[in-house]
Amino acid sequence: MNRKANRDRSERNLPRWRRWTGWLVPQQNLGERGERVAERFLKRHGLKIIGRRDRGRWGELDLVATDGQVVIFVEVKTRTSHIGGEPYDAVNAEKQRRLTRAALGFLKRHGLTEYPARFDIVSVTWQDSARRPKIEHIAGAFDAVGVGQMFS
């Protein structure tokens, strides 16, 4: 059997969207690109990244960093324009509550409940024509939200 026949057979097992896109590697989505840029930005500003896309029982944390003894939970919001508002506007009260629960789960899992914590937001705006994104870091963007949290 020749190579083309093998390729045709293997294409039948692929999802339909993958067949018509060919064998190209899919582009990284905008959110993943934003998280990578935000990570580099935070490292350049002296933070140490200790977790990426941490999934726990209570949700997902984009980035977890430390600054000395402070544990920092970073929510990264990436957009291509400001038409729907600033990227950080997407972190509403419900999202803050979910991030608080996910952060508490992270602290408990890693035995870090005695350390102070804060919540930061990194807004990444990546215009289609721009080579580099506009990055805005909001340190201490919000306080822990919810009942029974252990943040102070």
Can you give a write-up of this model?
With 152 residues, the chain is an alpha+beta fold. The protein has one domain: Trna Endonuclease, Chain: A, domain 1. The chain contains four helices and five strands. A five-stranded mixed beta sheet has the order 1-2-3-4-5. A hairpin with an 8-residue loop joins strand 4 and strand 5. The N and C termini lie far apart (67 Å).
Question: Strand-residue fraction?
Answer: 25-35%
Please identify, by name, the CATH architecture: 3-Layer(aba) Sandwich
Spans where pLDDT lies below 50 across 5 or more residues: 4-10, 17-26
- Please indicate the count of domains: 1
Order of helices and strands: HHHEEEHEE
Task: Write down the oligomeric state.
Answer: single chain
The rounded distance between the terminal residues' Cα atoms is: 67 Å
Percent range of helical residues: 25-40%
Which sequence of strands runs across the widest sheet? 1-2-3-4-5
Computed structural class: alpha+beta
Instruction: Output the number of helix runs.
Output: 4
Mass-distribution shape: globular
Overall pLDDT score: 81
CATH topology term: Trna Endonuclease, Chain: A, domain 1
Radius of gyration equals 20 Å
Strand and helix layout:
Layout: H1 3-12, H2 16-21, H3 30-44, E1 48-56, E2 59-67, E3 70-79, H4 93-109, E4 117-125, E5 134-142
Parallel strand pairs: 3-4
Antiparallel strand pairs: 1-2, 2-3, 4-5
